[in-house]
Amino acid sequence: MLFNSFVFLVFFCVFMLGWPIARQTAPRRWIYIVVFSLFFYGWWDWRYVLLLVATGFVDFCAGLLIYRHRRIARPVLIFSIVVNLFVLGLFKYSFVVAQGLNASAAHFGLDLGLPVVQWILPVGISFYTFQSMSYTIDVYQGKCEPTHSFLHFLAAISMFPHLVAGPIMRASKLLPQLIEARVPDRVERFEGLRLITHGYFKKVVIADNLALTINDAFGGAASLHTGAEWWIIATMFAMQIYCDFSGYSDIARGLAKWMGYEFTLNFAHPYTSTSLREFWERWHISLSTWFRDYVYIPLGGSRRGELLGHRNLFITMVLSAIWHGPGLTYVMWGVIHAGFLSLERATGWPQRLSRLPLGAVAGWAIVVAQVWIAWIFFRATSIEQALGIVGRMLSPSSLSINFSTTALLFLAVGVVHEFYTWRLDKRSDTRTIPAWEAATLVLTLVACVFFRGPGNTFIYFQF
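-> structure tokens emitted (463 positions)
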């Protein structure tokens, strides 16, 4: 069930009709959330509801065993992690592994005959698996106590606003919120409306309209566009994926606010960053902090010397890339970011540049160039296509630009909208509701109706 569909609007209206009564007591509240969330998830394919419940039950039991029996805590944690990674790997990576092993064996004249089965990927499996894993790890590390109610736990990991595309909510943050009923006040309801409205605008007006030009560009050969045009296309894709993904996160946060809950901020205007490290502190925050806390720091972070720090950084970024999918283009995207981050750490160029006149502007331009080049690999259909595109971007070529006015217009709208919301987020007084902002929301809703692009699924649903 897509947020940008009529059936979801009906679904959420029905949910909110019964929510004021259902939220009054804990067991009733949890049952209500679970029933609606599993219906929401099962709308796509009811069979995978069983998978969600089963893996959740494993982690729920693991949390209790870890807390009550510390002598077996470590093997129970390992078992829980292995189960989650096995399920994730089976659906997401097994066909690639089977293909690779068969090809390697054939090179030596052997025939392994491993079945190459490309499963239908359960929507959001990467998100709810990581959220569920963080629960058992946090219980093991003593960062939170386990819940003794499976309904309580299932309500947290299956809550429909964040279920299929995040943000990845830590159990230690969400479980306590589900214990008590909380009624949002007038300002919180308006903030929820603002998030939902701007989230839909980002998705259906900006991202979906830009998708037409981007899909056409990557559907052809690199030579069909000049280097200057590919820089514009890269800018369009950077805006598309940001508006698509942050739009989903904004809608999820807004829905949660109407329910009385607070979801973690997932995007903090990442394209304003003046260093790549700052970019990753602002982009997909719930995932980047997950890898920081559960991969980078356990590996030793930067505490064991410069060389091992760079190694740990590369491992973390490559695993983050593989999280998106098994394709080599994703791996290269992670390697490029790791390389740029290592160079930044070794040279300290953002700090050096910031001391110069207009250094912040120069730093921002460098980060944009790095991120844009990496995005080409993320979006490209193959390594060969990505290398061809980047080659044209970095080589002297014709500066001629031939784009439809409509595509450039929606790109400009995206830039203006991002600047507008950035200014809104910098306000010091967040408890008042200016009349001009209410009027702006009405105009934004009208734009969502009359200027929406062709309906597309959210990009991160495939992950």
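The chain has two domains: 6-178, 186-454.
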